[in-house]
Design a protein that fits this description.
The complex is a heterodimer of chains A (232) and B (203). Chain A has a domain of 138 residues. Helices cover 62% and strands 3% of the residues of chain A. Chain B has a single domain, classed as Tgt2/MlaC (Nuclear Transport Factor 2, Chain: A), CATH 3.10.450.710. Chain B is globular. A 5-stranded antiparallel sheet of chain B has the order 1-2-3-4-5. The termini of chain B are far apart. The chains are: A mainly alpha (232), B alpha+beta (203). The interface between A and B is large, with 41 and 50 residues.
Chain lengths: 232, 203
């Protein structure tokens, strides 16, 4: 079997149960909040996103460096310096407007670049689709985050909760239409999302490069001219 | 003896393989690029320009575009995987009929986000007898969306799209994985998949 076809989901029954729970939480809490959020002015939402991204700079920069991506590390640093000053504490993405667009990184991707396999598929409560490697990466990023650390040391846990909540809402709001359509058109929403998040993740690990092996799946058809089996 | 046979095999492979993809017939990357440009323009037009038309009318137009541009039977054959071999002639025919409706519905829904947008073809290359075309949808706001197309010469002749990869997500691979899950839950048979496809497409 080709690598991209393996579901790699030995925990499927548990994952499906958590997925069902997440869908209920999404339907009654997360999605309504995201729908209310998109009613806010676009400019305000953009600034919230820019601010959150700027706060993530230490994590992105560290992972750029750990992956040996010098040029991207330079971009991250440039963006931070420009956006924190000219962009008023990160509220405006002046750097992107001047040709240095945002890119994300996390320790899960770094582990992948180092050759760590993704491990079994894992649906996390509330957080959604992941795998063993990326869950470990997420925990490492969380522990290593100096911004979170600083807030906690200064009795500002509320800031961390607000930040986490806003990140979740911003992400969910961006996916409102996409996920609605996917759920409506798919035959098995769970399986569709499993395949798509994994492919998307692989693309992120490649930093979007399109000319690497695996970037473009081959479409191979087996035994095309087999006659149908004889039946009564 | 065996060594000589092995050498002979190797030799015949070396001689035969370069002849395998019929030379002269294979489409050039340039043709692929032009094909995608034309197809995407027409598809986006069908989705965008006729916004005032009813959903059914737009779907009819989009279906026409898909028919001329996509090799739907080949995609249908790929996404159902090895289960095809177990299916009867009648099941295969019914499946392909429903799949055609399903893929038009799905692609129209998922590509509809990009109506009113412009497409720029970035590069095209040959890939194992296929042509792979890289393109970008340029949006009014936000970064461009990367869309890659895999084209193959159809049995009946002419280039046809067999896969669309949006930001690294292959439509064909996603559907194949999804269908595999449906088939597996249905006991490895084609019938439950056909039933579900029928429900989804209202046929």
């Amino acid at each position: 079997m080709r690598q991209y076809e393996e579901a790699n989901d030995p925990l499927e029954p548990m994952n499906r149960a958590i997925f069902a729970f997440n869908q209920v939480a999404d339907r009654y809490v997360i999605k309504p909040v995201a729908e209310a959020y998109v009613e806010l002015p676009q400019g305000l939402r953009d600034s919230i996103r820019n601010f959150l991204r700027n706060l993530k700079t230490p994590i992105i920069l560290a992972n750029d460096l750990l992956q040996g991506e010098g040029r991207r590390a330079g971009e991250t640093l440039t963006r931070f310096l420009v956006n924190s000053t000219a962009g008023v504490l990160g509220l405006f993405d002046v750097a992107a407007a001047n040709g240095v667009p945002y890119h994300d990184e996390d320790f899960g991707q770094t582990l992948a670049v180092w050759g760590v396999g993704e491990g079994p598929y894992l649906v996390l409560p509330i957080l959604g689709p992941s795998n063993f490697r990326d869950t470990a990466g997420m925990a490492a990023d969380w522990l290593a985050d100096p911004v979170r650390d600083w807030a906690e040391d200064h009795d500002k846990s509320w800031a961390n909760w607000t930040r986490t909540g806003l990140r979740a809402i911003d992400l969910r709001a961006e996916l409102l239409e996409t996920l609605d359509k996917l759920e409506r058109t798919s035959l098995d929403y769970y399986a569709a999302l499993r395949s798509m998040t994994r492919q998307r993740r692989d693309a992120e690990i490649r930093n979007g490069a399109r000319d690497q092996p695996g970037a473009m799946p081959k479409i191979e058809i087996e035994d095309d001219d087999d006659p149908p089996p004889q039946r009564k | 003896m065996t060594a000589m046979l092995r050498a002979l095999c190797l030799l015949s492979i070396l001689v035969l393989v370069p002849l395998a993809p019929a030379p002269g017939q294979a489409a050039t990357p340039e043709q692929g690029a032009a094909f995608v440009k034309d197809l995407a323009d027409r598809a986006l037009e069908a989705l965008g320009k006729f916004k005032n038309l009813s959903k059914a009318d737009r779907e009819t137009r989009f279906r026409e575009v898909m028919h001329t541009g996509f090799d739907i039977p080949t995609i249908g054959r790929f996404v159902v995987g090895p289960t095809w071999r177990k299916a009867s002639e009648a099941e295969r025919a019914r499946y392909l009929e429903l799949f055609e409706r399903y893929i038009v519905q799905t692609y129209a829904a998922r590509l509809a986000e990009y109506d009113d947008e412009k497409i720029a073809v970035a590069a095209a290359r040959a890939d194992d007898g296929d042509v792979v075309v890289a393109s970008q949808i340029l949006r009014k706001s936000g970064p461009p969306v990367k869309i890659d197309w895999r084209l193959r010469e159809a049995k009946a002749g002419g280039l046809r799209v067999i896969d669309v990869v949006i930001e690294g997500i292959s439509m064909a691979v996603s559907q194949r994985s999804e269908f595999a899950s449906v088939i597996q839950q249905g006991g490895g048979e084609m019938a439950p998949l056909i039933k579900l496809l029928g429900e989804k497409t209202g046929g």
